[in-house]
Write a structure and sequence with these properties.
The protein is an alpha+beta fold and 200 residues long. It is 36% helix and 19% strand. It has eight helices and ten strands. Strands 1, 2, 3, 4, 5 and 6 form a six-stranded mixed β-sheet that branches. It is globular, with a radius of gyration of 20 Å. It starts with a helix and ends with a helix.
Amino acid sequence: MDDAEILNQALAFHGHKCWASTAGVRLGLAAMRELGVTRAGAKELHAIIETGDYHGGMCFGDGIQFTTGCTFGKGNIEKSGEGKFAVTLVDKGARRAVRVAYRPTLQPKIRATSFMQKRAAGVPASQIPDEEQMEVVHLIWDAPADEIMTVGPVELRTWSEPEEVVRFAVCPSCGELVAEPYLRVAEGRLVCAACSGYPR
């Protein structure tokens, strides 16, 4: 699959077209090229994205997930929570990693687009015409790499994989399946966190 097809499929996966998911695709591809790796089928790679929660740029994470194959479902991606647009991609087998960060040189042009004007006014991205969505996509996609990203050096990075929990129990209160480490003791029984009444 060529890069343009990866972008198209990533945007379809994301659900709308925007600059942040496009940046995630470009930075994810750059990190993979720098490490000489292909998309993770299992857990060969681990991505650490620096975005946080509840802001309009979290779309960056979907670009990274689709491109690298590191997903929250596989547990080989995590958010470090700085609210920044950067990814560190780790090749676990080779014990190598690279950090790629988005450069905000195009933000004045992006802010001036009708897409971003409407987003700032509270219009959902999915309700903005496709040609306006594509304007911000093209700003990022067509820019020279050194204008939109900084690629750090490839460095040695030992990765210790946390133990995967494959033990589950049925909560006797609600009857739902829960991973054992999330069980709580309440009134002498092992129950899920929600049924325990304890804060999570």
